[in-house]
Design a protein that fits this description.
There is one protein chain. The protein folds into three domains: about 60 residues, Orthogonal Bundle (Arc Repressor Mutant, subunit A); about 120 residues, D-Maltodextrin-Binding Protein, domain 2 (3-Layer(aba) Sandwich); about 100 residues, Periplasmic binding protein-like II (D-Maltodextrin-Binding Protein, domain 2, 3-Layer(aba) Sandwich), CATH 3.40.190. The chain has twelve helices and twelve strands. The longest helix is centred in the first third of the chain and has 29 residues. The protein is elongated, with a radius of gyration of 25 Å.
């Protein structure tokens, strides 16, 4: 009968991938370079290479394709990525929770994902107020379209996301505000004198559309689609700021979120044009976080600020 070796408590577990190996894996994936990854996590390149090799050996799969100097994730690497990120985030949150309990107050880290408009026009004031109440918290912000922000939250890449309102069984939603989208013109535009026009008139004007993959683009086009009209395209741009400045230069009209043009409206540099017979355009904006995630004290404090700011009752 074959003899079986006793299992000792200090033996490595099957697929013992470990936090240091996952840290090296994520660094190489993000930098697409072993050299840059080693600089990012303050290790030597041979150490990073050894950790990746050990990880691939224990998992029995190649995680990176080496194409000359370019390094890309394989299918196995892409499958591992969200789990690796979630594991590292959980370890970080656990350490932060213990440190916060030990030290009592202050410090911590928050990872935030934000759609571009929210990140540019809404988040800075929230961060200023949060910093005044909780100095010393480190904050990392990642931008992406709304669907990318929700994926960041679900994959534990970020703790809190800001995007358009959504319903998802794994996500908790905090409603923040209604993002009013208004047709804007420069004061020199002929419609600025009357400040209203039917859809058919507006469809003949030069219209600047931006961010073709976003809900702004879809909502803007819906105004004309509902009236069986095709708007005149003059310019398509991928930046809200560019669309705004093109309107300021008198090159056309654009549907822009009110939150992005408050200064220009107050200064009289832009004029809102009412569309006769068309309902107001808006979309709900929310903060989201994953339902079963244990949030750090710093993240919980940030959520408290959001709730008291947008729903003080």
């Amino acid at each position: 009968m074959p003899r079986h070796r006793k299992i000792r408590s200090d033996d490595p577990a099957p697929h013992d991938i470990g936090i240091p190996r996952l840290e090296a894996f994520i660094a190489v994936a993000s930098q697409r370079s072993f050299t840059r990854a080693s600089q990012l996590i303050n290790l030597t390149q041979p150490t990073v290479s050894a950790r990746i090799a050990a990880l691939e050996r224990d998992l029995g799969a190649i995680l990176f394709e080496r194409l000359g100097r370019d390094i890309r994730l394989t299918d196995a690497g892409r499958a591992l990525m969200p789990h690796a990120q979630r594991t590292l985030n959980a370890a970080r949150d656990a350490a932060e929770a213990v440190r916060a309990l030990r030290e009592g107050v202050g410090g911590g880290t928050i990872f935030i994902g934000a759609a571009p408009t929210i990140g540019t026009y809404v988040l800075p004031d929230l961060l200023r107020r949060f910093d005044q109440a909780h100095p010393g918290v480190e904050i990392t912000i990642r931008n992406g379209r709304s669907e990318e922000v929700s994926r960041m939250v679900l994959d534990d890449v970020v703790q809190i996301g800001f995007e358009r309102r959504l319903t998802h069984p794994e996500i908790v939603t905090i409603n923040l505000y209604e993002d009013d989208i208004m047709l804007m013109a420069s004061p020199q535009h002929q419609l600025s004198r009357v400040r209203h026009a039917p859809v058919a008139t507006i469809a003949r004007e030069s219209i600047i559309f931006f961010d073709t993959g976003s809900s702004y683009h879809a909502l803007s086009h819906a105004v004309f689609r509902d009236s069986d009209l095709a708007p005149r395209h003059t310019l398509d741009v991928d930046s809200l700021e560019m669309a705004k400045h093109l309107v300021l230069c008198g090159l056309g009209l654009a549907f822009l979120p009110r939150v992005a043009v408050q200064r220009e409206l107050a200064a009289g540099e832009l004029v809102p044009i009412e569309i006769e017979g068309a309902p107001p355009i808006s979309r709900g904006i929310a903060a989201i976080y994953r339902k079963d995630r244990s949030l750090s004290p710093a993240a919980l404090n940030f959520l408290h600020l959001l709730r008291t700011t947008y729903d003080p009752t």
